[in-house]
Amino acid sequence: MSSQTPDGTPSTPNPSRSNPFEMRFDLLHLAKDILEQNAHFAREDKSQDRKTYFTTEEVIETADRLKAFVSQR
Known about the structure:
By secondary structure, the protein is mainly α.
């Protein structure tokens, strides 16, 4: 399930944005999407005992890791 804008269109990160707030917003949505997909796969894969949910703190932590990766030179 991907994030959507208020008008219902899928939101995708736009690399031409230069506003730091918009970039943080995109990173948060990307992190949420990643964790959401992981939880979905965990629910479908009954053979392994994996976590099928995620917390707000995990979204923020994942976004921070994505930001650190993007900021590397």
